[in-house]
Amino acid sequence: MNKISLIHEGKAKKVWQTEDQDLIIQEFKDDATAFNNKKKGSIADKGVTNNAISCRLFTMLGENGIPTHFVSQPNDRDMLCKSLDIIKVEVVTRNVAAGSLVRRYGFAEGTVLAKPIVELYLKDDDLDDPLMNDEHAVALGVATCEEVASLKELAAKINALLVPWFAERHLRLVDFKLEFGRHKGEILLGDEISPDTCRFWDAESGEKLDKDRFRLDLGGVEDAYSEVKRRVLGL
Ligand code: TMP
Ligand code: ASP
Question: Tell me, what's the pLDDT at 109?
Fold first, then answer.
């Protein structure tokens, strides 16, 4: 499958149309941004690392009954996917308090949440991806009531699959962001799952092994991403 034309260039990926109308290629870049593009940089080999991690995770989720856009991994940087009509909602699931949950509500970082929290954000960079509830999403016309219910149900199922899977690899899944899209009448999991879109803490030491190392200038960013890749691929 070949890249025919560039459909979209995002912060971390390029999306290419292929010769098959139903298939696109996500090309993972090394560029890194945080705080809605206010902080910019690059993480060596991030594209290759995140593609490998995402392909493994989408395969595992697919094998466990989650409908995803993943088709195959043609090479190091590319993921061949079903084309989606992206739903403009970012679905964040949290198991442990960190990041904006700490800033917004005053939780102590590391507080284990009695029950996972699922949050919806409007996918709109101009508005800085504001937090919203189900009714905002429906009123804005970004998703129907039924679709919002499906997104939340899928996020909960995915969390229930990912938490023990990462625990076996000595990683604590603190929180993560998912995106979904419509394809031939079905809602599929789209985008990526990687240290860019998840918080991972080492199960024993609590060391941060994700994009927070870049966001917070903690150093060791490349090593953290490679360590997650090593554990995810079982290397
Ligand atoms: P937050 O604590 O900053 O709201 O982030 C929650 C999770 O969502 C965290 O794992 C990082 C991920 N995330 C993204 O993937 N993209 C984003 O634009 C933001 C703000 C967070
Ligand atoms: N992905 C967002 C950005 O590019 C925010 C983040 O991950 O912190 O700015």
Answer: 98
What CA–CA distances, in Å, run from 186 to 22, 80, 162? Answer: 13, 18, 22
* Contact predicate 218/180, CB 8 Å: no
**What domains sit in the chain, N to C, each tagged with a CATH number?**
5-82 (3.30.200.20), 85-221 (3.30.470.20)
Q: Which residues does ligand 1 sit against, CB inside 6 Å?
A: 92, 98-101, 129, 175-177, 197-199
Please report how the helices 46-63 and 145-168 are oriented relative to each other, as an axis angle in degrees rounded to 10.
110
Q: Summarize pLDDT for 107-128 with one digit per residue, the tens.
A: 999 999 999 999 999 999 999 9
CA of 164 to the centre of ligand 2 (A): 26
Measured on CA atoms in the order 125, 76, 79, 1, is the torsion positive or negative? positive
pLDDT in tens, 40-85: 999 999 999 999 999 999 999 999 999 999 999 999 999 999 999 9
Determine contact, residues 28/48, Cβ cutoff 8 Å: yes
Q: Which secondary-structure segment (H or E) carries 201?
A: strand 198-202
Structure tokens at 100: 């904006």
Per the document, the length of the chain is 235
Nearest to 31 by CA among 201, 198, 211, 200: 211
- Residues 157 and 140: their CA atoms lie apart, in Å, by 26
**How far does residue 197's CA lie from ligand 1's centre (Å)?**
6
Q: What is the pLDDT of residues 142-199, one digit of tens each?
A: 999 999 999 999 999 999 999 999 999 999 999 999 999 999 999 999 999 999 999 9
